[in-house]
Each structure stands twice: as C-alpha cells, then as structure tokens.
C-alpha cells in the first residue's frame, strides 16, 4: 500500500493532478482542520487564492465521536439517514446538539478568518478540499453551503477517497487514489497527526491577540 508522507505532500500531489485541468478563476477552500493543510498546498501549485471552510460533525447522543450528520457555520445541515434510522433518531431529537455544533463552527470560522471577509465564490470554479473522503458527511454540508454562493463549478478534491463516498452537491469528485480496500483516511498517510488550531492559523497568516 502506497501512503502519502503527510498532508502537505498529499496536497502537492493533488495540486499537480488538478493543474492538468483548465479552471476558471479557481478558488480553493479547505475543510478545517486537516483539509486546510492540503488546500494550502493545492493553492500553492495552482497559484490560486484559498480560504478555510468549517463543517462540524453532529454526534449521536452519548457518543459524540459517532457522526450522524454535519453542520456549517451558516447552518447548512446534512444527516446520515441510515445512521439516524439505525439509532432511532430524528433531526428534531438532535436539534440541541446541532445548535451547539453550529455555534462552535461559527466561533472557529470567526477565529480562522481573523476579521476578514470570506473569499467571494460567485462565478468561480471552487475546489473544496479535504485530506480524504470517507462517509462524506462534512463534505456534503460544506458543499451545500458553498453551492448557495453561486459558483460556476463546484468540485470536491482530496488525496484519497472511498469509492462509495458521497460528497453531496458537487459537480465532480477528484482524487489521487481511490482504493478498493479503503477503510479509513488515516491509513493512507504515514503521518496523520491531528492538525491543530495553531497550525491552521499559521497557514492562514492569522495572528491571535
């Protein structure tokens, strides 16, 4: 199994692949936090502006690590229907959790932007980037939020994606590898340490006082 050394190396590989395509005023958006490292490398290769987008998983009651949905800072929300049915849950039952995660997404977005306005995406080719695509729940929430801004084209791109993953309201999914034996994103990286807020802020050039 060939693995990427780390997120930056994976982003450079992805950027090289994307550079073979024609893009109209491309804008790169990295899903916080791991996707930000990949997005910065992609933008470097494409010589494109880039920004961060925040989508938070909505965890099952009592098991917050088990994501049954995701929400963005703007409130765009998606749920994993089969997971809800399996656990006997409804979106209404998760309203409080969803609200808390949206508030956290908004807080993080404000910190990451450092007082700047988000990049305008209307009429541009938008590349939504993450370090991988497994279930795709956060990607779908982020894509729904971006789609409302009227991009010319919305593409999801990641170094590794599962074959059956759903990135939501995108025009295309592009990856470097799409392994048949995909189990988890982290298995395809030699270094898959969590990306910290400090790393994200440093890449974005944001100084927190």
What does this protein structure show overall?
Strands 2-1-6-7-8 form a five-stranded parallel β-sheet, sandwiched between helices. Strands 3-4-5 form a three-stranded antiparallel β-sheet. β1, α2 and β2 (50-53) form a beta-alpha-beta unit. α1 packs across α2 (34-46). It has six helices and eight strands, in the order αβαββββααβαββα. It is α/β, with parallel strands linked by helices and 209 residues long.
Give, in spatial order, the strands making up the sheet with the most strands.
2-1-6-7-8
Portion of residues within helices: 25-40%
Largest sheet: 5 strands, parallel
Shape: globular
- SSE class: alpha/beta
Distance between the termini: 44 Å
What's the count of strands?
Answer: 8
Q: Stretches where pLDDT falls below 50 for ≥5 residues?
A: none
SSE order: HEHEEEEHHEHEEH
- Give the overall pLDDT as a whole number: 94
**Discrete helix count:** 6
**Strand residues, percent:** 15-25%
Radius of gyration equals 16 Å
Task: Based on the model shown, name its key terms.
209 residues, five-stranded parallel sheet, alpha/beta, 33% helix, 6 helices, three-stranded antiparallel sheet
List the helices and strands and how they pair.
Elements: H1 7-18, E1 27-31, H2 34-46, E2 50-53, E3 55-60, E4 63-72, E5 77-79, H3 81-87, H4 95-113, E6 125-129, H5 137-147, E7 153-160, E8 172-177, H6 197-204
Helix pairs in contact: 1-2
């Amino acid at each position: 199994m060939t693995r990427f050394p780390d997120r930056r190396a994976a982003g450079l590989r992805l950027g090289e692949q994307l550079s073979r395509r024609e893009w109209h005023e491309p804008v790169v958006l990295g899903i916080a936090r791991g996707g930000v490292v990949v997005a910065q490398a992609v933008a470097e290769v494409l010589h494109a502006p880039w920004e961060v987008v925040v989508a938070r998983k909505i965890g099952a009651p009592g098991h917050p690590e088990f994501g049954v949905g995701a929400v963005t800072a703007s409130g765009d929300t998606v749920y994993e229907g089969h997971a809800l049915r399996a656990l006997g849950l409804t979106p209404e039952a998760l309203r409080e959790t969803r609200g808390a995660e949206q508030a956290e997404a908004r807080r993080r977005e404000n910190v990451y932007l450092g007082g700047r306005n988000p990049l305008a995406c209307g009429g541009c080719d938008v590349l939504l980037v993450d370090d991988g695509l497994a279930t795709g729940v956060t990607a779908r929430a982020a894509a729904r939020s971006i789609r409302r801004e009227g991009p010319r084209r919305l593409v999801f791109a990641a170094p590794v994606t599962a074959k059956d993953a759903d990135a939501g309201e995108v025009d295309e999914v592009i990856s470097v590898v799409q392994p048949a034996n995909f189990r988890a994103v982290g298995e395809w990286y030699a270094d898959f340490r969590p990306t910290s807020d400090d790393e994200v802020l440093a890449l974005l050039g944001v100084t927190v006082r």
